[in-house]
UniProtKB/TrEMBL annotation:
This is Ribonuclease HII. Its cofactor is Mn(2+); Mg(2+). SUPFAM superfamilies: Ribonuclease H-like (SSF53098). Signal peptide: none annotated. Its main location: cytoplasm. One of its GO terms (molecular function) is RNA binding. It comes from Nocardia globerula. Residues 11-202 form the RNase H type-2 domain. A divalent metal cation binds at D17, E18, D111. Pfam families: RNase_HII. It catalyses: Endonucleolytic cleavage to 5'-phosphomonoester. It is found in: Cytoplasm. Endonuclease that specifically degrades the RNA of RNA-DNA hybrids. GO terms for cellular component: cytoplasm; ribonuclease H2 complex.
Length: 208
């Protein structure tokens, strides 16, 4: 897809993707990435980050940073997500990530939905991380960055298992949330987080 845009003189082409949209704790991380018209052979494995093994993502992460013409990664913290909503946070985060590129893009490919307010023409691509190498690269940058954040968060807020489930609503996470209640990194407007907090308060009231 990028090659067609480059052939028509619309490059550089930036791909944008996020990680953490479906989680109930931790940040939303958005990355933008501009690759060369012919990506380096070291990036031949690029695909949707969710389809790659953790080891493959970790190996590609420094290679993408080294070989990309430009890349940018930003985080939208849980507090801001609660304040403006996940969809607006996603749109705003994609704008910020593109604005952070040192190489101004001539065209932007986004994964899945339209992003108004970008500084260049753009196109939403359904399944974009499997269709465009620049989106796949952004997907890996976002996913690995967020995984590292959640692993660090596991030390700051022990007991929730953030290093394992990365803030998604797994049974292990929900059990810990029911036992401990929300921490400051949880998205406090999410229904499952609100419900868990109420249950903890009710138990405390019964034993107080």
């Amino acid at each position: 897809m990028e090659s067609a845009l480059y052939r028509t003189g619309m490059g550089p082409v930036a791909g944008v993707d996020e990680a953490g949209r479906g989680a109930c704790a931790g940040p939303l991380v958005i990355a933008a990435c501009v690759l060369a018209p012919k990506p380096h052979v070291a990036l031949a494995r690029l695909d949707d980050s969710k389809k790659l093994t953790e080891r493959a993502r970790e190996e590609l992460f420094p290679e993408i940073k080294r070989l990309a013409l430009s890349w940018s990664v930003i985080s939208v913290e849980a507090e801001e997500i609660d304040r403006i909503g996940i969809h607006v946070a996603n749109i705003e985060g994609m704008r910020r990530a593109v604005a952070g590129l040192e190489t101004p893009p001539g065209y932007v490919l986004t994964d899945g939905f339209r992003v108004p307010g970008l500084p260049a023409p753009s196109l939403p691509v359904i399944g974009g991380d499997a269709a465009a190498a620049c989106i796949a690269a952004a997907s890996v940058l976002a996913k690995v960055t967020r995984d590292h954040v959640m692993e660090e968060m596991d030390g700051t807020h022990p007991g929730y298992g953030f290093a394992i489930h990365k803030g998604y609503s797994t049974p292990v996470h929900m059990d810990a949330l029911d036992e401990l209640g929300p921490c400051p990194e949880h998205r406090m407007t999410y229904a499952n987080v609100v419900a868990a907090g109420l249950r903890v308060e009710q138990r405390a009231g019964h034993t107080g």
